[in-house]
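Propose amino acids for all 467 sites.
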């Protein structure tokens, strides 16, 4: 590799570097850190997968030859689980055919050892610019997703995809259970798009009576119907140049589905009672918690409209699948509500937080907000007690699964979840799993999980291996 370079700073982008050569790993980490990147360095594919389960990086740099499994296998698993995550492969001359094959399968690039540092930095910068085209600085990176509080990997992946598709004008269908935050995600996509300075108009198709929905969407002219004493612009026209978000699109009547399809096809809107069309430039985002495939089979939703709306699909996970997000969300909700109600409330008691984390949350984020508002309104002490949370939940909290039950599911995910919940405290994690510490350490070793990496402020660079 060449001498250190003076390049544009990496703005703190997180890179995962995988190589079993400890000297090269250390040198790469130093060089990338010096160029402004945040680096996680590991020496095996299993360790890389463990780190990916903790935090999703912006880019992966991996050697093709690794001790526990080859880099091609690692690449294929990354591609399967995280299709938007760019991967740069490092290869010796003997593995160039593998690297070429990997690029045909979706690897961003490959470099042969010994490689040129300037070329590596260029490839990294190019890959990052493609993976997040609207990103300019840390502040703007966060501003677009304001209101979407998360630290879970599944949300990180979803938001990375949302940031990518925001740059296009493609129609997006957002799926998810009620209360998962579909409108928040739609608004975030709008803020990350080129239409951010134009209007974002949200319409709940299930909340407006059918008789009024057509006029609300497309407007009407004077005399179009009894009571239409003047002309009125519809919400489609109001969103001209911006984004129209159609929530609960599955509840839209068939007659209006036909009219919406015509607007999408012709990019012209006609007010109710008028034969004159007006051109509109609007991006359509839609959302539903219904099964639209079943609705199409039953003749309740038009197939042609479905394919117009469903160019890209994003699916919001239920809160029960992102439990590590409960604590930061509940805490932020509590602080904002305490300010709203003029309460001196600083947080939750530990057992109250555990009850929130293990609750079933059928109502998802909306239910969590309501529960926090309930406890904040009734709080009489700086810390919210367990009893108040249990009262607000009105349902028994879920027990943390024992290891015997969880083993039938996905062993590694279970261990990762416990370490996240306990901030890397092995004693607490072992207690929750109903296993002794010695056995629990063996389980962590089996999956190459280091509890220290789950602790707040833990170093991201792997320690040197002892020969």
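Proposal:
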């Amino acid at each position: 590799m060449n001498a250190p370079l003076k390049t544009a700073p990496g703005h703190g982008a997180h890179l995962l570097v995988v190589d079993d050569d400890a000297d090269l790993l250390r040198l790469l980490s130093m060089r990338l850190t010096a160029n402004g990147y945040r680096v996680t360095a590991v020496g095996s594919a299993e360790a890389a997968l463990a780190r990916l389960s903790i935090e999703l990086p912006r880019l992966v740099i991996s050697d093709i030859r690794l001790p526990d499994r080859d880099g091609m296998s690692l690449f294929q698993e990354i591609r399967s689980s995280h299709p938007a995550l760019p991967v740069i492969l490092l290869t010796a001359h003997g593995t160039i055919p593998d690297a070429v094959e990997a690029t045909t399968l979706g690897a961003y690039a490959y470099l042969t050892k010994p490689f040129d540092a300037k070329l590596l930095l260029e490839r990294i910068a190019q890959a990052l610019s493609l993976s997040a085209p609207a990103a300019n600085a840390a502040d703007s990176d966060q501003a677009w997703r304001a209101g979407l509080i998360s630290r879970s990997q599944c949300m990180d992946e979803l938001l990375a995809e949302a940031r990518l598709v925001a740059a296009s004008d493609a129609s997006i269908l957002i799926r998810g259970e009620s209360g998962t935050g579909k409108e928040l995600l739609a608004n975030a996509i709008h803020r990350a798009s080129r239409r951010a300075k134009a209007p974002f108009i949200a319409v709940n198709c299930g909340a407006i009576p059918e008789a009024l929905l057509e006029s609300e969407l497309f407007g009407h002219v004077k005399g179009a119907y009894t009571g239409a004493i003047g002309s009125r612009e519809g919400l489609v026209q109001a969103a001209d140049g911006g984004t129209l978000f159609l929530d609960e699109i599955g509840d839209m009547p068939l007659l209006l589905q036909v009219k919406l399809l015509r607007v999408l096809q012709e990019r012209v809107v006609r007010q109710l009672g008028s034969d004159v069309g007006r051109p509109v430039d609007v991006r359509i985002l839609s959302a539903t918690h219904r099964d639209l495939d079943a609705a199409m089979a039953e003749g309740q939703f038009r197939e042609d409209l479905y394919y117009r709306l469903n160019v890209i699909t994003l699916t919001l996970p239920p809160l029960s699948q992102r439990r590590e997000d409960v604590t930061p969300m509940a805490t932020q909700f509590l602080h904002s509500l305490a300010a709203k109600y003029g309460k001196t409330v600083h947080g939750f008691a530990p057992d109250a937080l555990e009850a929130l984390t293990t609750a079933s949350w059928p109502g998802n984020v909306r239910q969590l907000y309501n529960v926090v508002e309930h406890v904040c309104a009734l709080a009489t002490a700086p810390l919210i007690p367990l009893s108040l949370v249990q009262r607000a939940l009105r349902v028994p909290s879920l027990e943390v699964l024992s290891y015997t039950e969880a083993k039938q599911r996905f062993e590694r995910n279970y261990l990762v979840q416990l370490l996240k919940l306990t901030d890397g405290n092995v004693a607490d994690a072992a207690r929750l799993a109903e296993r002794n510490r010695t056995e629990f350490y063996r389980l962590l070793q089996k999956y190459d999980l280091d509890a220290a990496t789950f602790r707040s402020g833990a170093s991201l660079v792997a320690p040197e291996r002892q020969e």
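The first helix runs from residue 22 to 34. The longest strand covers residues 283-288.
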